[in-house]
Amino acid sequence: MxxxxxxxxxxxxxxxxxxxxxxxxxxKKAGHRVTVLERSASSLGQSEPTADFGLSIVANAVxxxxxxxxxxxxxxxxxFTQMWDxxxxxxxxxxxxxxxxxxxxxxxxxIRRSRLExxxxxxxxxxxxxxxxxxxxxxTVDLVWNAxxxxxxxxxxxxxxxxxxxRSADLIIGADGVNSVVRKAILGEGAQPQLHGLLAYVAHVxxxxxxxxxxxxxxxxxxxxxxxxxWMSNPSAPYRVVLYPYSPEAFNIIxxxxxxxxxxxxxxxxxxxxxxxxxxILKEELEKQxxxxxxxxxxxxxxxxxxxxxxxxxxxxxxxxxxxxxxxLLGDAVHALTPHLGQGVNIAIExxxxxxxxxxxxxxxxxxxxxxxxxxxxxxxxxxHRIQWRNLQAAGLLSEDEKAKHGxxxxxxxxxxTYAYQGAEKELLKRNKEEISV
Length: 438
Fold this sequence. Notes:
Elements: E1 10-14, H1 18-29, E2 33-37, H2 44-47, E3 54-57, H3 59-68, H4 72-75, E4 78-79, E5 82-86, E6 92-97, H5 100-104, E7 109-112, H6 113-125, E8 140-144, E9 149-153, E10 158-161, E11 166-168, E12 171-174, H7 181-187, E13 194-206, H8 207-211, E14 227-232, E15 240-247, E16 250-258, H9 263-269, E17 273-274, H10 279-288, H11 293-300, E18 307-313, E19 323-324, E20 327-329, H12 332-335, H13 344-359, H14 366-394, H15 400-406, H16 411-418, H17 424-437
Parallel strand pairs: 1-2, 1-12, 2-8, 5-14, 12-20
Antiparallel strand pairs: 3-7, 4-7, 5-6, 9-10, 10-11, 13-16, 13-18, 14-15, 15-16, 17-18, 19-20
Helix pairs in contact: 1-6, 1-13, 3-13, 10-11, 13-14
């Protein structure tokens, strides 16, 4: 595709999560006029500090963020270089190097979510990144907090907010998560979140505290070897404890366990998260799954509050369900995952870059926008579907027949097919070469 000057579009993004902010930054860079509508009253670090957990930004997304202008030092993260597998009784079974910088040309970074949010907000608010402008004008982003979207008209390109006001645009991007209002406008009730009986308990713990415990000293004693430690109840089961840093000073502990204890609580509250979970309850749940006392102690005796999220996914949605009229989906709104492979935020960032790539080649006509959305979905859906399936495999959520046929996930194979991604344009060239060679 040629890089000719195109019409600047008026674009509404519903949701200021990491996928939505990445899309806003990329579309601004291309010269479009973007309005981001976020239901929260302020940024994550200010409004929901308990939800400010660590995450892994893997090479496939790091390439795209660095190209956007994200500063690695500003993230204050830790480079992921090692993985440890342990049994429930704390026996080390594997210690494996993990070096995406060497293999795929970009590091994998373990960071605090609010750090990346802050970086994206910096880019959205700054004048940097206008050099790619193909529209004849400089892009803008208007970020509106406390703006809950109640309904979307995908044919007219109009959203109605809780306060009764409405806004219209050439394009509406649904980056509003697993309970997406935009997805409902596109599909009705045709893609409901799926439950798997899983809950992720999350707590923060200091690096200094881990260094004082004999069972976790291996994870902190060598500053050049930092990464993820997994204690798994069974390689083919979804229950596990995961320990990983998100800054030089702190780690997250995530315990993925059954959610049945909280089923009535979730039904009554209509929410999918809990705060201030008693350590005693987490202790009981870990003991039920056979985790040793030192692992139970690690997860519960750290002085940090414990919160929890019910894990939900979406089915594989075919290309034609990703968009309709003037609306299109990205991130968890179209492919929510459990955290077992750490790819949820990464493929949302991939979506954002790809959507920008195709939209920035549109002339703004209805026909051109429809084609751009079709091309975006056609590029993204096959890759996303592979990752969704691999995620279910890693989580132990395949059927018994599928487990017997495919066995446990091969991490090296998954890395090769996932981490080398470097954006929409290179992916298109790769696919074209593959088609020619067939």
